[in-house]
Amino acid sequence: MATECSDGKSSPQQASTGCGSIVAVGDSLTAGFGVAEGEAYPALLERKLRDAGHDYRVINAGVNGEKSGEVLGRLDAIIAKRPDIVILQTGTNDGLRGLSPLDMKRNIHEIVRALNEHGVTVVLAGMQNLKKRKGEYDEIVAAAYDEIARAEGVILIPLFLAGVAGDPGLNRADGIHPTAEGYRTVVETVFPYVVEAIERRRRTPG
After folding, report:
1. CATH homologous superfamily of domain 12-203?
2. Residues 140-181: tens digit of each pLDDT
3. Which whole-number Å values give the CA distances from 176 to 68, 84, 182, in the listed order?
4. Catalytic sites, residue numbers
């Protein structure tokens, strides 16, 4: 896949870790609904990566309200961006709308498989249903991410909203979308898994 440095230059530390592009795919939790562009987690992540010596560009490809099937529908456009790494955060809106959790799982699995086939290193963001439902619905949703990650050998963030979900102080009044402070917590959760993806690419020949 293509790589791109921010200015065509890199320090010795940056040269050791490589440079390239990360596409953050997801719904409003990725797009940064309700906060400024620079406060959404992809922008914060890019700054944190570069501060740590990883010269990676992070593209915010979040779409408000998007469901997993819609991510699948725009997968070709995502792959056309030629990312080295994709952070995949989806399924939230499937759950909020009560769509089939099995369909959601199939959609996400197909997305991950296709990205793998195109040589993209995938970081899959684990989610829990944000609107409790009866029966086994919530359990199926929560388990799907781990099952897909194991099946496809991709990196899993166990819970994307760890330390944020359910905390009124870190969410907007709707109880779903993080505040700017909440996104800073999200970045702390996401960061080590993205570094793992960068290191995995560095160790992989070609």
Report:
1. SGNH hydrolase (3.40.50.1110)
2. 999 999 999 999 999 999 999 999 999 999 999 999 999 999
3. 18, 29, 11
4. 28, 174, 177
185 near 163, Cβ under 8 Å?
A: yes
Closest among 74, 90, 108 to 27, alpha carbons compared = 90
> Can you list the alpha helix ranges (DSSP code H) found in the chain?
12-17, 28-31, 41-51, 68-73, 75-80, 92-96, 101-117, 137-152, 180-203
For the chain, the domains span 12-203
Cα-Cα end-to-end distance for the chain: 9
Closest CA to 75 of 31, 30, 107: 107
Residue 58, both tokens: 């992070």
The CA distance from 121 to 141, in Å, is 23
Alpha-carbon gap, residue 127 to 144, rounded angstroms: 9
Look-up of token digits 């899993």: 156
The token pair at 56 is 């990676």
Give 11-22 pLDDT, tens digit per residue. Answer: 333 333 447 999
Q: What phi, psi does 56 have (nearest 5°)?
A: -115, 135
- 193's CB contacts (< 8 A; 6+ apart) are 123, 155, 156, 157
Q: Look up residue 134 and give its amino acid.
A: K
The token duo for 18 is: 């490589």
**Torsions phi, psi for 118 (to 5 deg):** -95, 10
